[in-house]
Write a structure and sequence with these properties.
It is a single chain. The chain is of the alpha/beta class. The protein has a four-stranded parallel sheet with strand order 3-2-1-4, sandwiched between helices. It contains nine helices and seven strands; from the N terminus they run H-E-H-E-H-E-H-E-H-H-H-H-E-E-H-E. The protein has helices spanning 6-22, 33-46, 62-75, 99-117, 138-144, 150-153, 158-167, 193-208, 238-251, and strands spanning 25-28, 50-56, 79-83, 123-124, 214-219, 222-227, 255-258. Strand 5 and strand 6 (222-227) form a beta hairpin. It is 41% helix and 12% strand.
């Protein structure tokens, strides 16, 4: 690895100083690239006064849940697991454009309560400067509830976070970006526990087959697979393609398609009008 950019080290030092000023912190931890760096730095700076709070629900991929727990155990970091029934959140299953706001509000209310009982002075989450671009209604809930975003405050981008993670020897430095399974549903389509499991199984299969950055979007009974364009040629293999189709059908999908635009974040937001992206 090349020597880190001095500007990046300044951001890293600013992050450490800010976290130190908190005295104690509960980190909303999913096991992803961003929250893993935040948790590691928080624990480095504050020791046992930094701990993880993880929201587990039907829209949290099972593999991510297992990896988050493994990281905490391997690093001697306390993890508090909060189980969330997102299906009980009014409006969640209707999958309106403000679904993420409704869900994040409930999740962080629960995490804040758990952190308060442990005496943490703050709750922090892992958004970064790259999160400013897409439609992310959940960020409004985070701001409303007073949750802190130390990585963003330090001016860290996704690339910065990966570089720092590599520098610190974190296993997540090159981990694919993740998001909750509810983001795989076209707006207006009913979210059900059964369909969340279908998506989780389908994405786990593709990961097991060696696909790196993937999404399986669900449209009724159709799966729309997004992979990086460099992985398109793998679908020319008749045996692999047949395996993917048969397994996804066994999970409950009637049709299996490949999105020729490839993987991109927030593809379900592409159909929203400016008015639909305004929270009511």
């Amino acid at each position: 690895m090349n020597e880190p950019d001095p500007a990046l080290i300044l951001k890293y030092d600013a992050l450490r100083d800010y976290i130190r000023s908190l005295g104690s912190v509960a980190v909303a931890f999913s096991g992803g690239v961003d929250s893993t760096l935040l948790l590691r730095v928080s624990h480095d700076v504050l020791g046992d006064k930094a701990f993880a709070v993880t929201a587990v629900s039907g829209s949290f991929p099972h593999r991510e849940m297992e990896e988050a727990g493994e990281f905490c155990r391997a690093n001697g970091i306390e993890q508090i697991v909060c189980r969330i029934d997102e299906m009980s959140i009014p409006g969640f299953t209707d999958n309106r454009p403000d679904r993420c706001y409704l869900c994040k509000h409930r999740i962080f209310e629960t995490l804040i309560d758990a952190a308060s009982k442990k005496g943490a002075s703050a709750v922090a989450e892992g958004s970064n400067t790259d999160d400013d671009g897409d439609y992310r209604p959940g960020m409004l809930a985070i701001r409303e509830l007073g949750v802190l975003s130390p990585l963003h405050k330090a001016g860290l981008s996704k690339a910065d976070i990966r570089e720092l993670s590599h520098m610190l020897g974190l296993p997540t430095w090159n981990k694919p970006s993740a998001a909750c399974l509810a983001s795989r549903f076209v707006y207006g389509e009913k979210i059900t526990t059964e369909k969340l499991k279908m998506v989780d199984k389908a994405e786990t299969l593709l990961q097991d087959l060696g696909f790196y950055q993937i999404r399986v979007r669900i449209h009724g009974s159709m799966a729309r697979i997004e992979v990086s364009p460099e992985d398109f040629k793998r679908f020319c293999d008749d045996e692999l393609r047949s395996l993917i189709c048969s397994r996804l059908r066994s999970f409950g999908f009637s049709y299996v398609s490949l999105d020729l635009q490839g993987y991109r974040t927030g593809s379900m937001n592409e159909i929203l009008s400016p008015d639909e992206m305004k929270l009511k």
